[in-house]
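If you are new to this repository, start here. Below is one unmodified record pulled from the training split, so you can see the exact layout before writing a loader.
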Amino acid sequence: MIDLTLLNDTDRWHQHCEQLQQQSIPRIQTVWNGALAIQVDELDLSEQSHYEDRHGTGVLAEQEIATRTAVLDRTVIEATHPAHEQILRVCGLCEARVAVNLQRPGCFIPAHLDKNRTFVKSIADRSPTPAWSDIRRFFYFFEDQAPGQFVQLGNTQLRWRAGDMIEWPYYLRHATANASYSARTMLSIVGI
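And here is the target side for that same chain:
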């Protein structure tokens, strides 16, 4: 059962995630490689917003000095988008929150643990009630990795090709950086 009180207590959330990491070896794997029915250049990216710590308990709250380059532009892909059904099918999910994350050159997100607050709250009243162990995380990469682009999951530095769908445990600390000359665009998917 999902304990929503964890979402409001960063210390307990960190303990929850660390306990899960100690119980088993985190599995990070490419589960699919192919083209999704979504083209980044066809999306309305004008609705992007910089990643920010709306709750005062996230990534930027842990930094000693806030920085303008600790940003990530994000656009949520609505469930009505043609690619959403394909993503559910490819990932084996019944419900998901899908977002395009665009990281511009020179930007980074420090190591952090996502609470996936919006998605978790949206599924909390489902019957039967999901458990934390039902939550699955994926990244989908639109382009080949360029020199200078980094994604770290736990202690693993990812290497990716265009079309890779990577599944990883939601409880892993992760970070991204873009020291390349081009923006890095990917999908971030959380679902059950």
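Two things worth knowing about this chain: The longest strand covers residues 96-103. Residues 4-191 form a domain with the Jelly Rolls fold (CATH 2.60.120.10).
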